[in-house]
Write a sequence for this structure.
């Protein structure tokens, strides 16, 4: 099978789908031209992610990685959430096919972009190295290949 | 399961299966052997060759059995290139939306110094005969244009292109993998010099196909090593598959009009039903189109997730999205007809056959409607389109 049972479970029954109208941080990464866009909404109280929702345009693994990423950061402190690596998302999903790994990178970037938006909106200083710019064009890797 | 991916492969027919088993039980000798058991196999091989030849109005001596459509395409093109090169002809004409068996072979020849012209196919996915005529030069060695496109099903003006090639003295090859057994083929009336077909697209077995080469065209083997196929294709013949293919082709050609009429009705019901989904578009001209081919783009969603959810509903279909091809770009066919990348990712191909039913079409329409709505509801692209923050590509 192409995907693990975990991936299929998160694809079939994605957790935390939707939008948060009064979100404290919103991040969108990806590019429609490449076939995947992820948008992440965070509700943050006292530095804790109390709610998270996502919207994704993309393939099965894009939806599954978004869903898993939301589960992994829900209830965590923002400084913990930005430590989320794409590898952690892949491991939590029991693996992804090699050519789908970029979906997990997008999931990581979507979380970071949403946190960056929260920091920017609230004037919170941060180490830019910890966060990607939020405009990470997933297409770069496509263009290079 | 509702199988709606007949352009990918078809279920082997009962008659073909039976003929294959009988061949394995009774005629399993090597057709090259001189004793009776070998000669019975040789007889079965020649009977299959006559059947295939009759189905496309060729002479049996013009039929070469291959491992399938890809090998036949490779051999037809490489042969024409090698023969052309001897006479200083190093230009080949084809189209932008051929199967990769053709395009990749041409790409290899381009790297080896051949000049390749890929004609545009326009929004409708149809090659213009005048474009072919205008592209032909004194150094043109070959024109190769598919009979019908494998993704969008559009049928090309083959007899007319063949006539232009005849007039200009250029060999004409057609990849008829999607057409054989579904559309009438007459290599003489349609001015075809070389033609490829593949058994498993018309309810025959996999791993076998045919290269037709008109008498008078010299042919070099791709595979060396034996005198099989009159020295043009080495390797002990896959007789059970060849016999199965001949039975399946004869069966398909015997019911070609009846099947086309029935399958076209299924196709039209699908096209009409799916067209009601907002912001979708049929890919390729509605006519002339293969009887069983339906291909749509749905704006705001991605094809792989669409396929996976249809699979959950018991529907087997295919898509031209990058994610389903394992490559980074969406279908070259959809790009060739001018679909932008973001829309090409949201494509769905349904290819039906005479074993499908009108009830199945209704179920497919309902299921696609549901799945498209579900995916759009979680798509940030669709939300932006709805809010007017992004322009619809498909109105």
């Amino acid at each position: 099978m192409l995907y693990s049972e975990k991936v299929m479970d998160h694809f079939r029954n994605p957790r935390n789908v939707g939008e948060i109208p009064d979100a404290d941080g919103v991040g969108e990464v990806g590019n429609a031209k490449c076939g995947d866009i992820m948008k992440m909404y965070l509700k943050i109280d006292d530095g804790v992610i109390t709610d998270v929702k996502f919207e994704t345009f993309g393939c099965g693994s894009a939806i599954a990685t978004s869903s898993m990423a939301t589960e992994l950061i829900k209830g965590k402190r923002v400084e913990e959430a930005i430590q989320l690596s794409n590898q952690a998302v892949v491991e939590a999903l029991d693996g992804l096919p090699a050519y789908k790994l970029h979906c997990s990178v997008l999931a990581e970037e979507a979380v970071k972009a949403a946190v960056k938006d929260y920091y920017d909106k609230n004037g919170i200083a941060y180490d830019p190295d910890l966060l990607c710019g939020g405009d990470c064009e997933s297409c770069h890797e496509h263009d290079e290949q | 399961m509702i199988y709606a991916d007949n352009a990918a492969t078809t279920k082997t027919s009962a008659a073909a299966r039976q003929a294959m088993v009988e061949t394995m039980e009774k005629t399993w000798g090597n057709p090259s052997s001189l004793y009776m058991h070998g000669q019975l196999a040789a007889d079965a091989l020649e009977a299959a060759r006559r059947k295939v030849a009759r189905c496309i109005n060729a002479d049996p001596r013009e039929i070469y059995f291959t491992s399938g459509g890809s090998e036949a395409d490779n051999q037809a093109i490489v042969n024409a290139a090698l023969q052309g090169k001897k006479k200083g002809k190093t230009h080949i004409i084809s189209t932008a939306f051929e199967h990769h068996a053709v395009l990749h072979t041409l790409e290899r020849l381009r790297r080896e110094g051949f000049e390749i012209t890929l004609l545009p196919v326009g929004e409708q996915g149809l090659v213009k005969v005048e474009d072919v005529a205008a592209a032909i030069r004194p150094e043109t060695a070959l024109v190769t244009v598919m009979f019908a496109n494998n993704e969008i099903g559009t049928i090309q003006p083959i007899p007319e292109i063949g006539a232009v090639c005849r007039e200009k003295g250029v060999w004409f090859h057609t990849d008829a993998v999607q057409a054989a057994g579904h559309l009438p083929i007459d290599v003489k009336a349609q001015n075809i010099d070389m033609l490829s077909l593949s058994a498993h697209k018309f309810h025959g077995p996999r791993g076998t196909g045919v290269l037709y080469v008109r008498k008078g065209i010299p042919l070099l083997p791709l595979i060396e090593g034996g005198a099989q196929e009159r020295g043009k294709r080495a390797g002990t013949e896959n007789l059970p598959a060849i016999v199965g293919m001949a039975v399946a082709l004869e069966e398909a050609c015997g019911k070609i009009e009846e099947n086309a009429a029935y399958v076209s009705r299924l196709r039209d019901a699908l096209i009409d039903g799916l067209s009601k989904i907002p912001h979708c578009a049929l890919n390729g001209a509605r006519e002339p189109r293969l009887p069983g081919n339906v291909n749509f783009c749905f704006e705001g969603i991605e094809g792989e997730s669409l396929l996976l959810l249809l699979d959950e509903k018991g529907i087997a279909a295919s898509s031209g999205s990058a994610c389903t091809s394992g490559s980074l770009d969406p279908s070259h066919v959809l790009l060739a007809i001018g679909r932008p990348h973001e829309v090409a990712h949201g494509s769905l191909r349904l290819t039906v056959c005479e074993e499908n039913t009108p009830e199945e079409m209704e179920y497919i329409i309902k299921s696609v409607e549901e799945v498209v709505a579900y995916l759009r509801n979680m798509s940030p692209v669709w939300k932006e389109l709805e809010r007017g923050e992004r322009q619809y590509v498909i109105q």
User: Anything to note?
Assistant: Chain B touches chain A through 25 residues (CB under 8 Å). Chain B has 14 helices and twelve strands. The CA atoms of residues 133 and 164 of chain B lie 6 Å apart. The longest strand of chain B covers residues 293-298.
